[in-house]
Amino acid sequence: MDLVAVKRMASSVKFLPLVLLSAGLAAAEPFVVDDKKLIDSFQTGIGAVADGEGHLSADALAKAVAEAPASIGSLNLSETSPADPAAAVYLVGTVYKCGKCDAWHPGGIASAWALTRDGVMVSNYHVFEKATGAAMGVCDREGNTYPVTEILAADKAADIAIFRVKASDLNPLALGSAAAIGSGIRVISHPDRRFFMQTAGEVSRYYQQPAPKDSKPVVWMSITADYAKGSSGGPVVDDQGKVVGMVASTQSIYYESNNGQPKGPLQMVIKNCVPAASIRTLLK
């Protein structure tokens, strides 16, 4: 082999990895979230619903969740989740008018996720229980909005609401099995309007709280992944993107307390989630 051929071979060996590396970087371009654009899309889309007729107000939905049946029956559930589970996660909230201008304003924003292709979604009971305003709807990460049309089933003790939006071609998440203690999970939610934030952690325990009289005991799942206000209803997913739980609440532990009031430094924040098994109970 002459010297020219050797140089050509060496050149091609160096060039090929660079080409593959460049292609890999191009394929891994991240999705960039524009928080302001999303809240504007939500405000405009659900505001248009509020301007129309034939929709349920947020106040009516708050009443409906209290009167909803305990189960919905079987649904056509997906067995797999999209490659990017965030594609099945939504903002959920209300719009209202302040009385000082003619514009619609977004109210409280929480999280929700698609359970079926034809518009069935899941969030927390307390998201609907506290809803006020002229209309309620959801918004995906592309800015598409859909109005909430009905509450299908709810469980106040377990903090679950299954509802329907006016949509027919969603990309739903699959319901997974119970996640083992110590197994890795991710939360996809909207803490304080930081939309579509993902945090990682693991399942730390399952526990049962004392139930009120004549009520069934409720099992909760604790996780170590971070979340905050606005994350309510966000899915907790496993490494296959399947839902193993749902964000519900937090409890702060302080070094000491004074007559039940926090005192001393904050030591730990407990993250309470709805386990997938509780969601399945509403689908019987």
Quickly list its features:
284 residues; alpha+beta; Thrombin, subunit H; 2 domains; 5 helices; 12 strands; globular
> Which sequence of strands runs across the widest sheet?
1-2-3-6-5-4
* Measured distance between first and last alpha carbons: 74 Å
Please tell me the overall pLDDT: 91
Query: Please, how many helices?
Result: 5
Helix percentage range = 10-25%
Broad CATH class of the largest domain: Mainly Beta
- At the fourth CATH level, what is the homologous superfamily of the largest domain? Trypsin-like serine proteases
Class from secondary-structure proportions = alpha+beta
Assign the CATH topology of the largest domain.
Thrombin, subunit H
Overall tally of domains: 2
Strand-residue proportion: 35-45%
How would you sum up this structure, described in words?
The chain has two domains: 131 residues, Trypsin-like serine proteases (Thrombin, subunit H); 98 residues, Trypsin-like serine proteases (Thrombin, subunit H). It is built from five helices and twelve strands. The strands form two sheets. A six-stranded antiparallel barrel has the order 1-2-3-6-5-4. A six-stranded antiparallel beta barrel has the order 7-8-9-12-11-10. It is globular, with a radius of gyration of 23 Å. The termini are far apart.
SSE inventory with pairings:
Blueprint: H1 3-27, H2 35-51, H3 58-67, E1 89-97, E2 104-114, E3 120-123, H4 125-129, E4 135-139, E5 145-155, E6 160-165, E7 184-189, E8 197-209, E9 218-223, E10 235-237, E11 243-258, E12 261-275, H5 276-281
